[in-house]
Amino acid sequence: MGQIIPPPLSLYIHFPWCVKKCPYCDFNSHKLKGELNEEQYIDALIADLEQDVPLVWGRTVNSIFMGGGTPSLFSAKSIERLLNAVRALLNCKPDMEVTMEVNPGTGEYDNFIGYKKAGVNRLSIGVQSLKDENLKVLGRIHSSAQAIDVYHKAREAGFDNINLDMMFALPDQSIGEAKEDLLSLIELNPNHISYYQLTIEANTLFAVKTPKNLPNNENLEEMYLQGNKLLEEKGYQQYEVSAYGKEKRFCLHNINYWQFGDYLGIGAGAHSKISFGASNEVKRYVKYKLPRIYQTANQDFRLETKTLGQSDLLFEYMLNGVRLKKSINLKSFAQSTGIEPQILLDKLEGAERSKWIKVNKKRIELTDAGYLLSDEIVKLLL
Question: Is 238 helix (H, G, I), strand (E, B) or coil?
Fold first, then answer.
């Protein structure tokens, strides 16, 4: 086994509450009951970070992502306090990307200027659709008019890097309706668009009662290819399965995930992946999931610690790597995992025979067929 070289480092901060749990959501999010005790949760996040700091002594944090749940349920004052603590405890790259997720239905618009002053410089707004009938089916609490309004208010507050999320393959959605919805989103001219398929995940309300009239596989593929073409024509470059950036305004934080970078995760249910060059190990840490338990964790927020074995490393590296619209560098693979590239190539012989990938001495490239069948490639490593 070769020597593992720690890759770039990011910080993920999880906020577990929403006004309402969406029926398709399988993230660790909980309907807010009663008044939100912001101070208590921010206290817990800071204590959680203090516990984790020794894992990354001397390393620079290159990006921060605040996700959920709905981070924008928290006031600008709370976010400022949290980010000040992060900057005090960690070596943060100057002018690094700091993303915050926003739900258009939570009425936090007046906080936008405060969020920006606190250090947030990128927003990710969960629009999902600009048709009210679709939003109702998806269980969203906002209207299309509210989504457009929150986007414009974010621009007025000075945010010049905004992502908008949109779903396709919705119940009763035709190919033409998907095109019309996406064109409406593109007209807003966001810097980045996340365009992804509605999938029915286990442990969601949609898994219990699956919506009827979902598009068949043929229509689903046509919607996806149609979306790719539209976005390309409008100046958006696809750099990941569902991510498109204009003028190369890509999400640096997510790119770090997909390139098997390291990240600290703080907050209820957050995960971390940290590489240790000295011991030649890669470890995962999982925090307590339920907010009530997490906030009373008594300075020990870790539910689980696991050292990744060779099979874990092979699977996780490729699970991320096949999402990017770029080749997989075998030297980077070896440095990130400590595994000889030939071991990976042997596992992928079937994918090469099926012409899903092309292999040379330096890299693995997915073919067009392989990109559409990336899940099948990853299954070869199980």
Answer: strand
Confirm whether pTM is higher than 0.85: yes
Contact predicate 356/375, CB 8 Å: no
- What does each C-alpha distance from 160 to 127, 222, 225, 260, 325 come to in angstroms? 17, 32, 28, 28, 25
Reported confidence tier of residue 116, pLDDT bands at 50, 70, 90? very high
C-alpha pair distances (Å), 29 with each of 19, 221, 269: 10, 30, 9
| pLDDT tens-place string over residues 137-148 | 999 999 999 999
Question: Which domains are present in the chain?
Answer: 9-256 (3.20.20.70), 310-382 (1.10.10.10)
DSSP string, 331-373: HHHHHHH---HHHHHHHTHHHHHTTSEEE-SSEEEE-HHHHHT
CA angle 206, 253, 241 (to 5 degrees): 50
- The pLDDT, as a whole number, for residue 371 is 81
- Give the single-character DSSP code of 59: P
Beta partners for residue 31, in sequence order:
18
- The tokens for 242 are 């569902």
Q: Residue 368: its pLDDT value, please?
A: 81
Adjacent-strand bridge partners of 11: 64, 264
| Residue 13, CB-side half-sphere exposure with 13 Å CA sphere | 27
